[in-house]
Amino acid sequence: MGVRFVASLTIGLALAGEHLLAQTTPEAPVPAAAADEKAWSPSASVFTYLLPDEGNYAQPTITVDRDWLHLEARYNYEGLRAGSAWSGYNFSFGDTVQWTLTPMFGVVFGDTSGVAPGYKASLAWRKLDLASESEYVFDSSSSSDSFLYTWSEVGWTPMEWLRLGLVVQRTKVYQTEFDVQRGLLVGVSFKNASFTTYVFNPDGSRPTVVLGASMGF
Hints:
Elements: H1 3-22, H2 32-37, E1 41-50, E2 57-66, E3 69-75, E4 82-89, E5 91-93, E6 97-110, E7 114-125, E8 128-139, E9 147-159, E10 162-170, E11 181-190, E12 193-200, E13 208-216
Antiparallel strand pairs: 1-2, 1-13, 2-3, 3-4, 4-6, 5-6, 6-7, 7-8, 8-9, 9-10, 10-11, 11-12, 12-13
């Protein structure tokens, strides 16, 4: 998987997003009964990791929010063949500058097991945004295997359907020469769907590529 291929894929996604945006039509008003049904807000995402020196893998996540309640399930996040279940409390503030904070607590099971406090946070101002999530896994089998996981993005949205930015992550799922990996991101969106290409360690000889897709319901 070379950087040239990733660049071609990104350009193709961007052109597709522009084409789809041109076909957007105004949505009809939502009846009150339907609005009540939408009180539950589920979403799903999958991140496909294309690794230069190890086997590729997918990392799916499902979330459900209702008012203050946040529920989440992940697989292959804390470790390969490991799942986790989370609950948290949603806080949101601001008008011009909008931000959210969700402190969470999770249980990890499978090839990696333990408990984990964590959080999700986001901030948006005009065309700029910041998103971050972190957790600390207290491994139940050995305290030396406990680990801090983190993923953070800074994004700029020059067009409604296009997002550019920077990303950092710290993970133990796979090994690299960097403890904290840094990279670039390019994403396109259409209605409730988004597709993002991440390239970690782009200045290295063997970068890691992550293809992300998410959908809100």
